[in-house]
Specification:
The chain is an alpha/beta fold. It has helices at about 10-25, 25-30, 55-65, 85-90, 110-120, 130-145, 155-160, 165-170, 185-195, 200-210, 220, 225-235, 255-265, 325-350, and strands at about 1-10, 35-45, 45-50, 80, 95-100, 125, 150, 175-180, 250, 270-280, 280-295, 305-310, 315-325. The chain has 14 helices and 13 strands. The strands form two sheets. It has a seven-stranded mixed beta sheet with strand order 4-3-2-1-5-6-7, with helices on both faces. The chain has a six-stranded mixed beta sheet with strand order 9-11-10-8-12-13. Helix 5 links the parallel strand 5 (about 95-100) and strand 6 (about 125).
Length: about 350
């Protein structure tokens, strides 16, 4: 039986998932008990294509990579082009919408509307888009529940590293009293390079050259990216109804070489730490540079790597590290959600 997918957005991450589905077709049939079929693509830059019986993934990827447009897909009977994102969600026969549009973390749009429309049309959603979860988690979760559909967003915090599903499944039964971690690889890379002797500006330029930092690095270096990930963790894992505005946020732009050297002389390191903690009166969360002992577990996290620690009443201290970015890793996060979504829905029917 086919599980039909419609992609809203088909940039690097969407294409990475398509590559994975193509490469692991037989394995996925065994693991999911169904075959993932791509029936539609809608991308604001690359156009739109839909066939209810499915698109050939190899031909689709070759077409978009050679021409820049999915609408150059070979014309076959039943093929339709030109649908916008909302029409794709409403009018195609997809079971699941893969929402991988550009993240506007200020408004969460158009991704919030995409998720809302999918749920209202009884379609599952998997996404790597932080906006809907950070800004509209409770509304959209309730809407998904009301329509008995699955909503997966594993890739919104640590890409393919299972920072969300692990505490909800593997650590089930524990009370998690604190979550802390390094949730932005760009800033961690910059701080590590400053420890090696570079100035902030030199370290940032190197990060940009290597592709770790954007041309406009504001979201990373001012802590905004980590703050959105923190609010997702607070809401989903800790069950705390925090808004982005509730989280104290400070980036690394105020640190200089003198700060780094002083910490090193005293056996400490600077890290941008996201922290969520249960306290009397509720949950408190922050994102800010902290001086931590060189013996601290997070001090050993080097380069553009993410790490997260869960303090559990039964399991003790659990630390998870891994890539926080990368096309294949992020594509894999969508695959995690697809597999678990199918499994969860199957269990619900038994």
């Amino acid at each position: 039986m086919a599980h039909k997918l419609a992609f809203v957005g088909f940039g690097g991450v969407g294409q990475a998932l398509a590559d994975i589905i193509l490469d692991k077709k037989e394995t996925l049939k065994e693991q999911m008990g169904t075959e993932p079929i791509i029936v539609a693509i809608s991308d604001v830059m690359k156009g739109a294509v839909y066939h209810p019986d499915g698109l050939d993934i190899e031909t689709l990827l070759k077409t978009v990579r050679e021409t820049g447009s999915v609408e150059q897909y070979p014309n076959v009977p039943g093929l339709k082009t030109g649908m916008n994102s909302i029409e794709t969600i409403q009018q195609t026969n997809a079971d699941t919408i893969v929402e991988v549009t550009y993240t506007d973390v200020q408004t969460g749009q158009p991704a919030i509307d995409h998720c809302r429309m999918a749920f209202q049309n009884s379609k599952n959603v998997v996404t790597t888009n932080k906006g809907p979860i950070a800004l509209a988690y409770h509304e959209l979760s309730q809407l998904a529940a009301d329509h008995h559909v699955f909503w997966g967003f594993e890739g919104t915090v640590m890409s393919g590293t299972p920072a969300l599903r692990m505490p909800k499944t593997t650590l089930a039964g524990n009370e998690i009293t604190e979550i802390k971690g390094i949730l932005n690889g760009t800033t961690n890379y910059i701080l590590c390079e400053m420890e090696a002797g570079l100035t902030y500006d030199e370290a940032l330029s190197k990060a940009q050259e290597l592709g770790y930092a954007e041309a406009d690095p504001t979201s990373d270096v001012e802590g905004y990216d980590a703050r959105y990930k923190t609010v997702i963790l607070a809401n989903y894992v800790m069950g705390a109804p925090l808004d982005v505005s509730d989280i104290k946020c400070q980036g690394i732009t105020g640190l200089n070489q003198g700060d780094i050297e002083t910490a090193q002389e005293q056996g400490e390191k600077w890290k941008l730490i996201a922290r969520i903690r249960k306290e009397e009166g509720g949950i408190k969360a922050s994102v800010q540079p902290e001086r931590i002992s060189a013996d601290d577990q997070l001090a050993a996290v080097h380069g553009p790597v993410n790490a997260i620690i869960y303090e559990c009443d039964l399991a003790g201290t659990i630390m998870l590290t891994g890539a926080g970015a990368g096309l294949q890793e992020t594509g894999f996060s969508l695959l995690i959600d697809l597999i678990n979504g199918v499994r969860d829905r199957s269990l619900a029917k038994t």
